[in-house]
Amino acid sequence: MRLVEHIKKRKESAFIAFFFLLFWIVLFILIRIGAIPVETARTWFELFNGATWPTEWPVMQGTQPGWFSFALATRTVLNFAGPFAVLATFIWLLFGGLERVMKMSKIEVLKMHNAELVGRLAFVLNKRHPHLLDRADLIAMQDAADQFTDEWAHDEPVARDVLKEEAASSPK
């Protein structure tokens, strides 16, 4: 159940992982059944995997075709992963990812500021009126500060989305 919830929260990551898994499976099957003749497609595989083609691979292809297909498919998918990750990160930043990270940082900074402010106010009040403050008062002050942060965040469109994701990911 947790895996399904995790996938639902991170749809983009799950899609990318599924895409590469599907790509690997298709490549593995095509190499294994011989639909991609390795010797004729060798130049393409060398292009995607680098200019090195180990001398043991033709021997491995003939004696252990399953492991050969596994190694070739895995190597190709892993070589695609790096450039694809760079491209995906650039697109994510281009379409508002950086703004989202900055807003999230502002919310976290504001929450830390509020916690420090509550601590200092409690110190000053406890010094002036030692018997007035108890633990319930400190909790109430912290809750009021958190409520202020939430109200501020609900006025900010991107911060609102961040809070919704935090609420969805927190255990109930």
Description:
The chain crosses the membrane at residues 12-35, 77-98. Keywords: Membrane, Transmembrane, Transmembrane helix. With 172 residues, the protein is mainly alpha-helical. The chain has helices at residues 2-9, 11-33, 42-49, 57-63, 65-128, 135-155, 157-169. The mean pLDDT is 74. The relative contact order is 0.07. It has one domain (2-169). 84% of the residues lie in helices and 0% in strands. The longest helix is centred in the middle third of the chain and has 64 residues, at 65-128. It contains seven helices and no strands. The radius of gyration is 27 Å and the shape is rod-shaped. Helix 2 packs antiparallel against helix 5 and helix 6 (135-155) packs across helix 7.
What's the overall average pLDDT, rounded? 74
Coarse structural class: mainly alpha
Spans with pLDDT under 50 lasting ≥5 residues?
none
What is the number of E strands?
0
Strand content: under 5%
Helix content: over 70%
Radius of gyration: 27 Å
Continuous helix count: 7
Distance between the ends: 14 Å
Largest sheet: none
Gross morphology is: rod-shaped
H/E series: HHHHHHH
Instruction: Estimate nothing, just give the exact number of structural domains.
Output: 1
Transmembrane segments: 12-35, 77-98
Keywords: Membrane, Transmembrane, Transmembrane helix
Short description:
Keywords: Membrane, Transmembrane, Transmembrane helix. The chain has 172 residues and is mainly α.
Name a few traits of the molecule.
single chain, mainly alpha, 7 helices, transmembrane helix, transmembrane, membrane
